[in-house]
Amino acid sequence: MKIHQIYVEKSDLNPYVDKSYFYVVEHQGQAIAFDPGLFSTIDSLLQKHQLNLIAILNTHHHPDHVGGNMQLKKKYSCPVYCSEYDQSRVPGVTNTLKYNETLKLLNIDIKVVDLKAHTLGLIGFYIESLSALFPGDALFSAGCGRLFEGDAGDLLMSMKTIASLPQNTNIYCSHEYTLQNLKFAKSIEPENLTLSRFISEVEQKYNASEPTVPFPISFEFEINPFLKCINEDYTMSLGFDSGESAIKHLRVAKDNFR
Fold first, then answer.
1. What's the number of CA atoms in the CB half-sphere (13 Å) around residue 177?
2. What is the pTM of this model?
3. Distances (CA, A) of 45 to 9, 36, 134, 179, 184
């Protein structure tokens, strides 16, 4: 079993692609693709490793996550999965999924996790046997996705859902936004030495063109202000009486952070 990670900074083939990660999980000559925003990059990897694509799993409907669906579906005659909410918004969909449902593909169990907030149809895919979560844009290192459709209550609930997973779970998110997220987190917690050290590490990785993804959930509790909002002591330290009000404030502040 292997997870392939593909990074695309920008693409003329899909103008919505922005510092994007796409993922392919392979096992014994077969593969599943998570949020294939580009046909060409996914198809090239499949051909290089002589893999047959047996399924496409979409976390949500945004074009940088579904741009390759139709061409891949046509070439490989594979099903396309998404949430029930997104069945009219995801191109090529053949199967819809319910929260907490478990798929069995490549002989592994893939649990469907409710992570709505960024969009109301967003789901994550948790694979316990790989200690992996594919959350789309629900969570980034030191950050989270914008609230395009959900509200602060949804976002807080998504953070609690992610936090409930085993601490050794690695997050395979969909964008490389770590450094900018860390700079925002540092503006919220200027005395956090862990943030200072990690910013230096990430800057070195960026200079070496190395990814900061995947990353473990356990470390996010030290650097991610949005995930920390599940902790009452943290929200009180920011001057808020609830996690929901704190996370709402943080999301608005991040939207306006430059």
1. 23
2. 0.95
3. 17, 12, 19, 28, 35
